[in-house]
Design goal:
alpha+beta; four-stranded antiparallel sheet; 24% strand; three-stranded antiparallel sheet; 252 residues; 25% helix; 6 helices
C-alpha cells in the first residue's frame, strides 16, 4: 500500500515527450537511491496538456537533494570522445549510469534517436547541461529554461529552424531557450524507458498503478497490457541542417 508513504508530485505536460522521459529519469535516479520507491501518473484525458507524476516513498526535499547530486555529477566519455561516444555519469552515493541510447544495441552505429550534429559531442552536451544554472529546483524544475546554444534535441519547446528566426543561428540569431534539467533527466530516462516504434511514430504510456522501476519500464513501452493508461505518439523530425528533434506528441 502507498497510503502512508511520503509522496512527491510534479505537474507536467504529457504531450511533451521530454517532460515525460524526464519523469522516467527521475524514477531511475530515485530508485537507485531508494529501491522501494514507486511511481505512477495521474492524468485526465479530458485535459490532455495536464498531468501529475507521483513518486511514492520520497519527500520533495529528497527529490531536490537527488537533483542537486545529479548536477554535481562527473561525466566521462567511454572510448574515443567523439560525437556519439557513450557517457558514464558518476553521482555521489549512487551506482554509475551509462548512457548510450543514441546508439544501436551493439554500439556499431547511431540510432534514430541521435538528434544532434556538427561540433556537438555527447560529452560536451552532458557537461553543458550539468554546468548550467538549474534554478531553484522547486516543483517547477521541468519548466526552468535559459538561453543555450546546445541541447540533445529531446524537448520540442527548444526546437527551431531558420524560418523561425529569419537567419541561421550560427550567424546572428539569439540562442533559443533550453530546459537543462528536463533535457538531462530525459537523457537518463531514455536509457531505461524506450518508446515503442509503431506505424504512427514512437509511443509511450502514462501508467496509473504505482509501480517499481522494472515493471514501470515495461508499462511505459506498452509491453504489459494490465498496466494500461493514456498513451501518446510523437515523431522525430528534422529541425535545421543535420539536427533533428522530438515533436510534441498527440493522444494515441
Amino acid at each position: 500500500m502507498t497510503d502512508n508513504r511520503p509522496i512527491a508530485t510534479f505537474e507536467f505536460d504529457p504531450l511533451n515527450p521530454a517532460q515525460y522521459f524526464a519523469c522516467c529519469g527521475l524514477l531511475e535516479l530515485a530508485s537507485a537511491g531508494t529501491p522501494d520507491v514507486l511511481a505512477a501518473f495521474d492524468h485526465d484525458p479530458q485535459q490532455p496538456r495536464k498531468a501529475r507524476f507521483v513518486l511514492y516513498g520520497l519527500t520533495p526535499e529528497k527529490v531536490k537533494t537527488t537533483l542537486e547530486s545529479l548536477k554535481k555529477a562527473k561525466a566521462t566519455a567511454i572510448g574515443e570522445s567523439n560525437g556519439e561516444a557513450p557517457i558514464k555519469i558518476e553521482i555521489a552515493d549512487l551506482p554509475k549510469f551509462v548512457l548510450d541510447w543514441w546508439l544501436a544495441p551493439d554500439r556499431s552505429r547511431k540510432s534514430r534517436f541521435k538528434l544532434w550534429a556538427g561540433q556537438q559531442t555527447t560529452l560536451k552536451l552532458v557537461e553543458d547541461m550539468l554546468s548550467m544554472d538549474w534554478g531553484e529546483l522547486d516543483t517547477h524544475f521541468l519548466n526552468f529554461r535559459l538561453p543555450m546554444s546546445g541541447r540533445f534535441g529531446i524537448d520540442p519547446r527548444s526546437s527551431w529552424n531558420t524560418l523561425d528566426f529569419g537567419s541561421s543561428l550560427n550567424i546572428q540569431a539569439p540562442d533559443p531557450y533550453t530546459y537543462p534539467v528536463t533535457e538531462m533527466l530525459a537523457a537518463i530516462g531514455l536509457q531505461g524507458f524506450r518508446p515503442s516504434k509503431t506505424k504512427e511514430g514512437f509511443s509511450y504510456q502514462l501508467w496509473t498503478q504505482p509501480l517499481p522501476l522494472i515493471p514501470a519500464r515495461a508499462a511505459a513501452s506498452l509491453a504489459i497490457s494490465e498496466f494500461s493508461g493514456s498513451s501518446f505518439v510523437f515523431q522525430v523530425e528534422k529541425r535545421s541542417g543535420s539536427f533533428r528533434c522530438f515533436t510534441f506528441a498527440r493522444p494515441q
